[in-house]
Amino acid sequence: MKNRxxxxxxxxxxxxxxxxLGALRNWVKLQENxxxxxxxxxMHAITVWQDPKELAAQTRQAAAAYIxxxxxxxxxxxxxxxxxxxxxxxxxxxxxIARLGWLNRMTQFKDKAGKNRENASTGLYxxxxxxxxxxxxxxxxxxPVGEDxxxxxxxxxxxxxxxxxxxxxxLFPITEPLILGEGARVMSLRDGTKKMSKSDPxxxxxxxxxxxxxxxxxxxxxxxxxxxxxPGKADLLEGRAEAQNLIGIYAALSEVxxxxxxxxxxxxxxxxxxxxxxxxxxxxxxxxxxxxxxxxQDHAYIDGILRSGAEKADAIAQPxxxxxxxxxxxxx
Length: 332
Ligand code: TYM
What we know:
With about 325 residues, the protein is mostly helical. The protein has helices at about 15-30, 40-45, 50-70, 85-95, 100-105, 105-115, 120-135, 150-165, 215-220, 240-255, 260-265, 270-295, 300-330; strands spanning about 5-10, 35-40, 75-80, 140-145, 175-180. About 55% of the residues lie in helices and about 5% in strands. Helix 10 packs across helix 11 (about 260-265) and helix 10 (about 240-255) packs across helix 12. It is globular and about 70 Å long. It starts with a strand and ends with a helix. The mean pLDDT is about 95. The protein binds ligand 1.
């Protein structure tokens, strides 16, 4: 099978620095060597309540963020999930392949459903099956994601394997996750043990891709740290979650290792370090933020890209879906 990349992000809020460093930035690099399909996964977003007007605006904003980060609609396919009906069709078939026991082990469902599990949507529960369908609908071989998606990708492999085995076919590849670089796990600025997330109630926990320079500076200034100095080696940050996170963000933004950052700032306190981090973050993000704001204004442009991306995606998906239906025994 051809090497093909698929990935996506949910338009359930503003995209964050975590999305950028863990995913988007790697998507851009992969465009050079792979056929890439990048999706705004609006069907995933509605597993929790989304105001319809905001969902539409956030979908456009996510598409603008992809493009502003460097996803090139001439090179890659860019579309929103709900425009290609094959995602929902394959997800249903996978609902009948995945086992309850498999889904019961998904930690993200437990986190997202929280204490009031009985009130979570059934969509939230079967969400990983839809994610497997997103990937396998295109027979994607590689999926660039942040660390938090690892378990879902293992499930995708299990579903592919079980489908191939049950129906005696070799239709689905065993997808490789691509979890790349120091930015694979960006944590909250308020709590170094929690992931930086677009759905965190605290604005100060995250940097959004459309934050202006003053907001970025203020959020970094308020970020939680400790009173100790920066050691010469990253290993020595053990047990200092917030310190580790800020050093990690610096490393990811400047594309060097955490050890290199520690060597550079050895013996300094976080007051000085935060100033350097702010300068770096603003320098890297401001061009993206500006470009995003410009693109976001142009609804016709974004909608046109998403529509034509959906047509291209559908053209790849249809023959694969046909094979799937034949394997299952659906008449056509
Ligand atoms: P989502 O929307 O939560 O995040 C999009 C991408 O950003 C990565 N990411 C992070 N990386 C590092 N640090 C963080 N704090 C951080 N937060 C988010 C995620 O790992 C992801 O790569 N289920 C997926 C969306 C999805 C998908 C797919 C991804 C649906 N179908 C098929 C790949 C392939 C999700 O909720 O991502």
